[in-house]
Amino acid sequence: MANAPTMASFPSLESALKHFFGYDDFRYYQRTIIEQALKGQDVLVIMPTGGGKSLCYQLPALLRLGVTIVVSPLIALMQDQVRSLKDNGIAATFLNSSLTFAEARERESALLNGDVKLLYLAPERLMSPNFWPLLERLQQTVGIASFAIDEAHCVSEWGHDFRPEYRQLFQLKQQLPQVPMIALTATATERVRQDISQQLRLKEPQVFVSGFNRQNLHYEVKPKTKQSYDHVLKLVKQQPGSGIIYCLSRKRVNEISFRLKQDGISALPYHAGLSDKERQENQEQFIRDDVRIIVATIAFGMGINKPDVRFVIHYDLPRTIESYYQESGRAGRDGDPANCTVFFSYADVATVEYLINQKPDEQEQRIARQQLRHVINYAESAICRRKIQLSYFGESFPGDCKNCDNCLNPVPMEDWTIESQKFLSCVARCQERFGMNHVIDVLRGSRKKRVLDLGHDRLSTYGIGQDHSVDEWRQLCRSLLHQELLSETTDGYSVLKLNGGSWQVLKKEIPVNIHVIKRPEPEAKAKANDVVQLSGDEALLLEQLRQLRKRLADEQSVPPYVVFADASLRQMAQQRPITTAAFSAISGVGKRKLEQYGKTFTETIEVFCRSHNLTPNTVAADAAAATTSSSSSSELTATQLTTHGLFQQGLSLSEIAIERGLRLGTIIDHMEHLMAANYEVDLGRLVSPERQVPIFEAIEKVGAHSLRAIREELGDTYDYNEIRLVRAAWEGKK
Ligand code: ADP
Ligand code: ZN
């Protein structure tokens, strides 16, 4: 049996994480989940796409004796995972129908030799009677460490991808009750979660639900006009990296991909009208960065494992909020900033309404109308987009996310009480029997036949609203509906009805404020999450590193992100590591990647530095060397220096934590080291001067060694973080 490392080989879970995957810190609940899994608990993990679910079973698999069996629904997903693991030097393999008999035999004997830590399988294979003997032999020889059920929502009929084969998985617990199980999914609904637990017969599972907020995604909605294609083109040109553009019809997909190509953008179509082979090829080209943009119908998505998609554009209206969440969620899985844009027009709403009316079943129509209403709410709303999405999943979010168009460019409010009274009294005069468009016609004094036939030109409200455009009245009407100051029938006719709120407005009891129609020109402010700006030289170096990554990836027939994530390349461009030690301090560089790529990358960086007259970052090099031998408090690691760079650029500590995907505590820790090492840090930005003084005084009085003693001296109104920061500054000054 191969001499694999186990938990005892590592001083901490963090060091194992760095060794195998090259990361410095766990995300969200990863650490707790891994601890539970290592204890042999059954665990149910619910984490949004890109949250880092895989690591939750992969790291325990590497730290335990025996093989971990991973159930995965799609061959493409399995191959992808195995490819990434192998690139990290991890013994993973899969068994599926794509293998020849001889290949499968070879893998089976490697398994029985104990040479494999992670085995990926489709559920039908695992549950087939032919497979049981192998499973039993495995259990008796090398041992089965755990079962991991990926995309576990496939077990539930209530989920969006029900797979009958998943239903058989309950037999695993019957046959091998002592083997712990971990189930993972991104599904948001409670019902599916319960179903997973029951169907898989999880034993007193620990359930971890991490929030559905995808902080790194920037959301925006843009009006769709005749010039929308130009708008899309502009977006595509502005944003670097890969992108997906979703359209509703095949015709639109073909049109947009064709026009993009004509405009010099590398783009390919993807829809159900293409042959399997074409679809497969287009997808593969996208994943390997041979083509930058995929224009697709919603047929594209499931099974696409590309973490570095930088933007997702919905050229047409999404169908539901849930589908929008899933589709836009394909952006930024690597945690780097990414952009999600919806183009919205009422003409599209009318098309969708028309399609809904074609549905034969009334219940179905009603559900579809309600879903459409939610999508329109999302698109029209002037409040935080994130808040609307998350409330749809039952998660309360305070708003002010600083990373959506409404939060970055708030639409000002205006008092429209008088207009509201005019509108509502017109609804009353029309006897609450008409919809929005008719009421607006009357208000604006239309000579339409219908208005005249009904005698509505004789109403007292006829023509009193000519001072506003049709669009402005519509906006007001929608806003009244949003604010529940007016109701609308939901039987498909959308007749306006007055409610209690309407009467309060009419009786002048409450004012009405609405968001003004014309937005100020957006893009005025920078996004909170914009990637750190690189200098000219850094950007050049980054481009060279990208090319190198692409070449190495092509040589091994893997997608570029398997070699290194974008964030790792960016750090290399900023820190310019040229020694092994400095290189290994880059996030994403584990033991295997260091061996495999360290030399090539550091050489490229060194050549670049020489030809551009740049000094390679020797501080980082020395500091990294110091941490690998013995870390001394006055020498700094690359990750601490990255934090310093971001701080100097004006980011707050919590922004740095978000930007880097690290915990706030870790960032404070970095700042402590930086200040203690006498790095330039403006303490005033961290702790206000009035609060600094008493802390300094307390330190002088009771000494610096015990945080608790300092706090006892100061009292409860001071927290440990601010004390830590001031103490570090004090130590730096010594
Ligand atoms: P999910 O399966 O939840 O959609 P993945 O497991 O594919 O997400 O992880 C998404 C991305 O995040 C991957 O590129 C992965 O390497 C990265 N990742 C996971 N955990 C960490 C971590 N602790 N630090 C940095 N990156 C991580
Ligand atoms: Zn927001």
From TrEMBL:
User: EC number(s) per UniProt?
Assistant: 5.6.2.4
GO molecular function, one example?
hydrolase activity
Coiled-coil spans are none
In this chain the HRDC domain maps to: 535-615
Cofactor(s) needed: Zn(2+); Mg(2+)
Q: What SUPFAM superfamilies does UniProt report for this protein, alphabetically?
A: HRDC-like (SSF47819), P-loop containing nucleoside triphosphate hydrolases (SSF52540)
UniProt key word Ion transport: no
Annotated Helicase ATP-binding domain ranges read 34-206
Report the catalytic activity: Couples ATP hydrolysis with the unwinding of duplex DNA by translocating in the 3'-5' direction
- Residue ranges of domain Helicase C-terminal in the record: 228-376
Q: Which Pfam families match?
A: DEAD, Helicase_C, HRDC, HTH_40, RecQ_Zn_bind, RQC
Q: Which UniProt keywords apply?
A: ATP-binding, DNA damage, DNA recombination, DNA repair, DNA-binding, Helicase, Hydrolase, Isomerase, Metal-binding, Nucleotide-binding, Zinc
Q: Which family does it belong to?
A: Belongs to the helicase family. RecQ subfamily.
What is this protein identified as? DNA helicase RecQ
